[in-house]
Amino acid sequence: MCGIAGLISLNRIRENGQRIKKAIVLQTERGNGLGAGYGAYGIYPGYESLYAIHIMAASEEAMERAALFIRRWFKVQKQEPIPVWDKIIRDHPYFQRFFVEPAALSQHCPGGRENEDDDVLEKMMLMNKEVCGAYAFSNGKDMGVFKGVGTPQEIYDFFMLDHYEGYSWLAHNRFPTNTPGWWGGAHPFNALDWSIVHNGEVSSYGINRRYLEGHGYVCHLQTDSEVIAYLFDLLVRRHGLGIADAANALAPPYWASVERMENHGQQERLRLLKIIYEQAMLNGPFAVLAAFSGGMFSLTDNTKLRPMTTASQDGYTYFASELSALYEMREDLQQIVTPRAGEPVVALFHEPAASGKGVAV
Amino acid sequence: MKLRAEQPGGRALYRPVFDRTLCIGCGECVRQCTFNEIRLDSRNEKRVPHAAGKACGACHRCEVMCPRGAVYIGERPLALRPHAVWSQEAVMRVHLQAASGAVPITGFGAGSDIPVYWNRLLFNACQVTNPSIDPQREPMETTTYLGRKPENLKEADGFKASQLLRLNLPLVFAPMSYGSINLRLQKALAITAREKGILWYSGEGGLHKELYDYSDWAVLQIASGRFGINPDYLTKARAYQIKIGQGAKPGIGGHLPGEKVLEGVSRTRMIPVGSDAISPAPQHDIYSIEDLRLLIYAVKEASGGKPVCVKIAAVHNVAAIATGIVHAGADMVYLDGYRAGTGATPAIVRDNVGIPLELALAAVDQRLRGEGIRHKASIVAGGGIADSAAVMKAIALGADAVAIGTAALISCGCHGCQRCHTGKCPWGLTTNDPDIAERLDVDWAVERLSNLVDGWLHEMKEIMGLNGIYDIGSFRGNRLLLRGVGLSPKELEILGVRHAGE
Question: How do strand A3-9 and strand A189-191 relate by DSSP bridges?
Answer without folding.
Answer: unpaired
